[in-house]
Write a sequence for this structure.
């Protein structure tokens, strides 16, 4: 009986994975090559987004939650206040705290589309500007990367130029899987590499990607809708826009414990 149980356990483990090796052209952040790129980015002021995102970096809680987790960590990095209690006396975004027009189980089952990502971002207090690669060009993308990642940080950690999120096809990068969302946290300009904080850390660690290759992965056509993927610039809306963010059709079907109305802004000042 013990031998049978042992064989079953080994067979069960053989059908699972503990991480995946990155392709050689995508150096992990912690690798020697990744550290050299990090030094290059730091010396070139190309890590403007990195530190705020690193403080809120988290691993997605479900294999299909790359969009959900990328959004929750980006909202926290931007300093967006959910104006609802998370736990105890604290307000903080997690996967379960995001509001949407559909239950979380829908994203768990089907994943999140490019348009849905931008829509859910807006419903949760962010300004979202989605750009499909098929409707733009790589030079415009490079400008978006530089705006989000390059420059002196003189704002006490606040991301005044927002967070850039890439929606791309993993297989174009030489990775396993298909559609994926990740924040872009840095730029090593001389090497023309961007730092991707992959939220599927059980699969791949944060790593560097050639800018041209990431563009090609975003320009790949999604067979589900016949459209390219792209990137989304997230930011904190202006005060005027912020006051009109409430939407009566928001639902929080996956987190009934957090479904109380948002606190009025006056109570948070």
């Amino acid at each position: 009986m013990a031998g049978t149980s042992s064989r079953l356990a080994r067979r069960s483990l053989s059908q699972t994975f503990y991480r995946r090796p990155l392709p050689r052209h995508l150096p992990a952040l912690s690798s020697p090559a990744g550290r050299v790129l990090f030094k290059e980015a730091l010396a070139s002021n190309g890590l403007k987004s990195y530190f705020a995102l690193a403080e809120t970096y988290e691993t997605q809680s479900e294999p299909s939650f790359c969009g959900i987790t990328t959004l929750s960590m980006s909202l926290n990095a931007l300093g967006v206040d959910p104006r609802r209690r998370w736990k105890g006396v604290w307000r903080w975004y997690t996967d379960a705290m995001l509001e949407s027009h559909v239950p979380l189980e829908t994203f768990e089952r089907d994943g999140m589309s490019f348009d849905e990502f931008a829509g859910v971002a807006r419903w949760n207090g962010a300004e979202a500007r989605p750009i499909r690669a098929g409707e733009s060009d790589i030079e415009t993308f490079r400008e978006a990367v530089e705006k989000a990642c390059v420059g002196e940080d003189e704002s006490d950690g606040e991301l005044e130029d927002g967070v850039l999120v890439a929606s791309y096809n993993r297989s174009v990068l030489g990775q396993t899987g298909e559609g994926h969302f990740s924040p872009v946290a840095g730029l090593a300009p001389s090497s023309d590499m961007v730092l991707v904080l992959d939220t599927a850390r059980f699969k791949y660690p944060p790593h560097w990607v050639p800018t041209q290759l990431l563009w090609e992965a975003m320009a790949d056509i999604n067979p589900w809708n016949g459209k390219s993927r792209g990137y989304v610039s997230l930011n904190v809306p202006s005060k005027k826009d912020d006051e009109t963010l409430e939407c009566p059709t928001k639902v929080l079907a996956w987190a009934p414990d957090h479904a109380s109305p948002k606190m009025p802004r006056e109570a948070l000042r």
